[in-house]
Fold this sequence. Notes:
This is Glycosyltransferase family 1 protein. By secondary structure, this protein is of the alpha/beta class.
Amino acid sequence: MSEAAADPRRGSGADGRVALGVYDFSYGPYALGDALTWSMNLACLAVDRGCGGVDQVLFIDPKRPSSRYQPFITALTAPSAIDQLLPGFLCTPGLRSLKVLRDAPTFHRFLWRDGFRRPMWPSLWQHLNRKLDQVSHFRINAFWRKHGFLPRLQAPRGHEGAARAWLRQVAADRFTVAVNLRQSVRAPLPANLFRDAPLPEWYAFFDRVARSHPDTLFLLLGGYGEWDRRLLRLPNLRIARREGLGLGEELALVTLADMFMGSSSGFAAMATFADRPYLITKIEHLFARYVEVPVGAAHYPFGAAHQRLLWEEEDRDRLSEEFVLLREKVTELAGRRTDGGHA
């Protein structure tokens, strides 16, 4: 038996099979967290079916460029929307190719040619019924229970080098924490404002850490409309987008930083599925049923001690407490790796 066939983490690919991922924006949302969860489901399918890699096809139908939940994305604005989101689809392990199609006949010919003969996510039947589970962890948890591991999302293809170079320049040997604070209230179309991070509590937390752990540098992730300009005054925080980095580099920073802290949102999904130390805050209670844990659970089913969940609204004291706890865990993990052990 070959090494690849013996190790389900790699997928056998012995018969040359390559999994197919299809994301149709007429019923799939333009959303980072959903794109990353979709990628994780696709990765689990590929490994479970012994595929040697994955191909991805993103389809924008000019006649129906978005779902009924995002009617503000039109045929004219859809190319810009997918351009901003595209790095989120470059994180899938084993990614072999990525196509973006806007011609319906071409997409349907491709689908009928490949959809019947390749493992596909969503399945061809689900696609034809316009059903896409891009939210739940059902398949992901089932894969973990079966195999005892998860295939992990990677830094977006082509973006890790620039992110690593920037990190060396601004952080040197400092302890780095990637941070994302959800601020939908500042978006052009605000939604679910109750999920936004309490900024005054985070400001106080940043100030505390500047005094207690001066070697710590926070790396703020998110677009220009997602951060308050007062953050520019903080000596222990750098804003990635302001310094020329885009979404691809920001996702790479999640995989490169020592840990992640922030709102339950797209960047938190990257930390979750890239196997990073993290604290994810203010998780919506309704989400519990979709991730198969009770409200208040400290970890996902596949989560480790250094991967923590916070269901209530965070305050400066809780953030400080969790930061110290996680930093100790990260230091412990680093020590194990240095000693030749396994994290």
